[in-house]
Specification:
- With 153 residues, this protein is α+β, with helices and mostly antiparallel strands.
- It has one domain (7-150): Thiol Ester Dehydrase, Chain A (Roll), CATH 3.10.129.
- 20% of the residues lie in helices and 36% in strands.
- It is built from two helices and nine strands; from the N terminus they run H-E-E-E-E-H-E-E-E-E-E.
- The strands form two sheets. Strands 1, 2, 5, 6, 7, 8 and 9 form a seven-stranded antiparallel beta sheet that branches. A two-stranded antiparallel ribbon has the order 3-4.
- The longest helix is centred in the middle third of the chain and has 20 residues, at 56-75.
- The chain is globular.
- It starts with 6 loop residues before the first helix and ends with a strand.
- The relative contact order is 0.19.
């Protein structure tokens, strides 16, 4: 059985792969398995835009990161070469100036594309503040996949 990186290993890979982000990713991986991830982005004042709400690009970056973490989980270091090809986000309600939680699910890991669904919440709010569908182009075929496509269980 092949070893798949856990949350701390993925955070370390990202620090190595993105040296310009000297402190590593701004988020932490709270839970991770083969099909789902939970990320936490601690609140910082520089995330706010006028109107005392968290800026849309912050939400979009967190959603993108959730799917990226799932890809690295499946593909290891090779997954770091994947690139976002589409990110469709629906902003559902105004996020509170607090930590953000991303719940991401890998919907499909194909031979050339991967798609994930991400729900974003303010830390103590059960209703989502945004929902995203994110698609990545993969650098090559997924490891361990059989047939033309692999759908996580």
């Amino acid at each position: 059985m092949e070893h798949k990186p856990d949350g701390p290993a993925i955070e370390a890979l990202m620090r190595q792969g993105f040296p310009e982000a000297k402190d590593g990713p701004r988020f932490t991986v709270e839970s991770l398995d083969d099909s789902e991830v939970r990320l936490r982005l601690p609140f910082r004042e520089d995330m706010l835009r006028p109107g005392n709400t968290i800026a849309g690009p912050v939400l979009m970056s967190l959603a993108d990161s959730a799917v990226y973490v799932l890809l690295i989980r499946h593909l290891g270091r090779e997954g770091m070469a994947a690139v976002t090809t589409n990110l469709n986000m629906s902003f559902l309600r105004r996020p509170a100036p607090s930590d953000l939680i991303a719940h991401g699910r890998l919907l499909k890991l194909g031979s050339r594309l991967a798609t994930g669904d991400v729900s974003l919440h303010s830390v103590d709010t059960p209703q989502p503040v945004a929902q995203a569908l994110v698609t990545y182009a993969l650098p090559g075929g997924p490891k361990g996949a059989t047939g033309p496509d692999f759908t996580p269980s």
